[in-house]
Amino acid sequence: MTAITFDTLEFTEQLRASGVPDEQAKGHAKAMVRLMERVEESWFQEFRLRDVATRGDLRDVKGGLAELGAKIELLRTELEAKIELSRAELEAKIELSRAELEAKLERFEKELEAKIERSRVELEARIERSETELGTRIERSRAELEARIELTRVELQKEIEKGKSETIRWVIAVSAGQAAFILAVLKLFPFH
């Protein structure tokens, strides 16, 4: 008896092309091979019970093959439907995951923008406070320096006035001394 030819590689590739994962496609191919082996074994046992195949037996075999072909076609159709359903479910899950991820990213973006805005406002407030404090310190330092400069100017003015008075007294004293010296010299050495 000849065995029914079934190309598992081609069957597996067709399943993969339909979107069935690799392991699942291999599992379906193995299941199909086991089913065909059982059917073939069943027929073989049936034929062994009979010594000679009659035309009726051949008609029965042809009918059995036709029935097997119909079953295989039914299984293929059911398998394709399951594959399509699995693909649709997988696509729906992927779409749901994508939508959830987009929503999370959008929330994260909004939260990040809000944090950045809060940080910007806080930083601007700190800068404003620092500018105010620095302006106050500068103004206070300027006022202190102006006061010191004015005090130093007044003290220097007093010193200058005092120096002028002393210089005038000294000039007067020196002039008086010179005049006295000249008079003394003239008395000692009269010009006649």
- As a percent range, the share of helical residues equals over 70%
Q: How far is the N terminus from the C terminus?
A: 182 Å
Mean pLDDT, to the nearest integer, reads: 87
Largest sheet: none
**Number of helical stretches of at least 4 residues:** 3
Number of strands: 0
Helix/sheet category: mainly alpha
Q: What string gives the helices and strands in order? A: HHH
> Residue ranges: pLDDT <50 for 5 or more in a row?
none
Anisotropy-based shape = rod-shaped
Strand content: under 5%
Rg measurement, Å: 60 Å
Describe this structure as you would to a colleague.
- 90% of the residues lie in helices and 0% in strands.
- Helix 1 (8-17) runs antiparallel to helix 2 (22-49).
- The longest helix has 134 residues, at 55-188.
- By secondary structure, the chain is an all-alpha fold.
Can you tag this structure with a few keywords?
0% strand, mainly alpha, 3 helices, 192 residues, rod-shaped, 90% helix, single chain
Task: Briefly say what this structure is.
The protein has helices spanning 8-17, 22-49, 55-188. It has 3 helices and no strands.
